[in-house]
Amino acid sequence: MSSTEKKPVIRYLYNFKFQDGTEKKFEVVLDESTLELVREDLNPKPEWTKLKYSQCENCPLPDSAEHCPVAVSLAGLVDAFSDAVSYEAAEVTVETSLRTYFKKTTLQKGLSGIIGIYMSTSNCPVMSKLRPMTRFHLPFANSLETFFRSISSYLTAQVLLMRQGQQPDWDLKGLQEIYKEVNIVNKGMADRLHQATQKDANINAVVILHSFGDGITYFIESGLTDLEPMFEVFLKKNGSSDSASSQKPS
Amino acid sequence: MNERILVVDDEESLRLSLKFKLKSAGFDVDTAVDGEEALEKLKAKPADVVLLDINMPRMSGIEALTIIRQTYPQTEAIMLTGFADFSTAIECLKIGAKDYLVKPVDTTELVTRLRSLVRSRSTELALQEVHQEYLGFLSEELMGPLKEIQTMLDQASKLAGDAEKERKKILKGAREIAAKLEEKLELVAEISRRATDVGTPGSEDISPTQLTEKLREIRKGSAH
Questions:
Q1: Of A99, A154, A163, B23, which has the maximum CB count within 10 A?
Q2: B4-105 belongs to CATH 3.40.50.10540
Q3: So what's the ipTM on this one?
């Protein structure tokens, strides 16, 4: 591809329509191959986006980085909803090149989807581990759907690692570690947003993401086996479900 | 029996993650999507503690808290909010919430706070029970026999000069009641001393629940 040629992109167009008839639109554009957020440089950047403003405990960025990449990515969205209430009813439409999603939901639920994309694609080294999931973004996903996408994405990475001759992690311990770190960033971002907003819509959207991070550890430890009946066709092939669960790929 | 926690939040992922965490910490957990459902669930089955989101549709957490404190005074409440606001926190505490936490909540810290709340709540309930039992003892076991002795002495003093045999019989009865009373008072004094000595070296610890049991035994006449 020549440098003059435009790179293929993935677009998510979020449209929030409120009961008073007002609408707010946000377009998220990602580089299709790297899944990196394509954004115009925001100027001037709000004070709360400075890296040192409320830096996450686990931030690996050097002091030379003036701004938090996640905060900069979120600034426009946060500003648009800074005085909005989390449970405000909204009709949210998400358009992609493949299909359109629509749901009558709460603002916080609609916002959590778009904030999730921004956070994982904005070049934060911690959040980038979730970037592959954005390729298969599912607006308005519930907890189970998000856990499933997350585990599927991580296991795909393990297969690719194995093919490269490296040691895969089938126990999902690494995924739990990722979410532990991710939740430190979610907490850090919620702390920043407390300074940047007047009401709770933005913060609660991050809180939803944080709760997925909290929940996945327990889901892996105890909820995953609840899915066994769905996978009966695979489990039967290897005998009883007990013997199947003990035959991990090595 | 495990302590029962009711998680009230309009967001499914939050209800689920708290349910996972609290269940794994050994609590019995139920959830409700808003204040109205919380009240319905409490009516069907009381909870020890309610975790109550403040900003919810239909009925706010503060409205629900007000009703819960009035209707279920033994149910404690911890408020959860996405947006920290000092005046709201004060309002919640004034209404009767025990704590006010800002989301995202550190679930490990939440479990610690819940355990401490449940512990102090059960101590409080046990002390209330001792208090009730003690009041029962005072009115039935102390005041009752004293009145009886008083009546007997009145009767004895009103007897004619030649009714010595009858007077002796009444006084004997009064002495017997007084002896039983003294015995019970000695037992109460003994357990009161033990309760006061709690924590001092060489003393035997006695919990509020054990105190209640001892008082009951004394009232039944089975304590030694």
A1: A154
A2: no
A3: 0.83
